[in-house]
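Notes, p. 3: input format for complexes.
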Amino acid sequence: MADLTLPENPDVPDDAENGVWLRCIECGHEHPPFDDIIYTCEECGGLLEARYDRYPTFEDFQGSGVWRYNAALPFEEGVTLPEGNTPLHRMPRLREEIGVRNLRIKHEGMNPTGSFKDRGMTVGVRVAEELGVDRLACASTGNTSAALAAYGARAGLQTLVLLPAGKVAAGKIAQASLHNARILEVDVNFDDCLDIVQDLADRGEAYLLNSLNPFRLEGQKTIGLEILEAFRDDHGRFPDRIVLPVGNAGNTAALYKCFREMVAAGDLAPGDVPKLTGVQAEGAAPMVEAIEEGLKDTRRWSDVETIATAIRIGNPVNAPKALPGIRETGGTAVAVSDAEITDAQQSIAAEGIGVEPASAASVAGLRKLRASGVIGSGEDVVCLTTGHLLKDPDAAAEAGNDPDPVANSTEAVLRYLAGDRGSGGVLGRLRRLLS
Ligand code: F0G
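Output follows (435 residues plus F0G):
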């Protein structure tokens, strides 16, 4: 049985370092944090989480970005670009259309490499330095590889990334490539790539920086801290619900850990913990299945497909941490279709915010749960948008308007504006096809 409650005054094990250690969520076995390189429990193979000798309060945080929260992190500072301090947009038209009390969008696409992964990497690569490794590796649906390549480059470390061939958006590959990662494309799904990278890491060939690495989730915890602080400053209370896209379930696990620590610190009442609400694409929804069927862990889906390639994942490795997070906060999980994702991407873009398809899943999920009455009209909701529009330029172009060709004259532009759309638009495309 997973033990997920935090003791108020933790017993600090002898081999803790600077008040930090690792603890297995399954059997409770404790490990020193930086002696050996481990990712899972040496006793039972369970997932590990970082533990601290004290839980800081909001008063302890100073500065900006991820390292504002260093009192809740294993180090004072890290390899930084810098990351965090992302906007919490108001969305008045979408709020009105969906019908909730408040709707804010936490746009993680505004991090230095364009996704929330930077928050995990600034901490994870700092740990890699502490451990003295020289090669970093990850499997990725794209964003992790972009972030790892950038932070690895910043730290002067070699990076190796394994990607599912043909299933990674162009912007992400471009980033990994320019930051000089060694990029391997494997003709399998993300989950199989992760199996290989885990194997390499177990053989000591590379330091694993997927979200199985407990230190990455420490950095991602700061999304929750920023939301809690900013929402409270603007509205005088904490949000009722946080809706987020789910792939490997790292963010869901990280947000839950953030809430548990703030509850243990006494700064968040148990009744004020936001309900964690996960959204997956219909074609890759093992977490939704596990929530609906009351499973302790997910079943591995070997065939996954969705336009939201970032969350095209069938075996969410953090499910044992994330499922209790959804359940114990009173949240839920929902699957949305690719068409619903694209609709949401267009609606968010119509208010000036550009996100990639996986990110739009959060708003698609909110829309669906609001329509079915699971989410009430009185709720204060924060949707997490995890990656920038430019990550996936092909999906954006597909969801957006086509450029209209026009002849080389002002008259032609005026004719176009007057309503004769010339050869552009759907009719133009049809005409071109027929000619
Ligand atoms: N949104 C985006 C844009 C992502 O890139 C990811 C994960 C998720 C959501 C899901 O987050 O795994 O914490 O549930 N991308 C990983 C990658 C798997 O390799 O970039 P999660």
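The first helix runs from residue 92 to 98.
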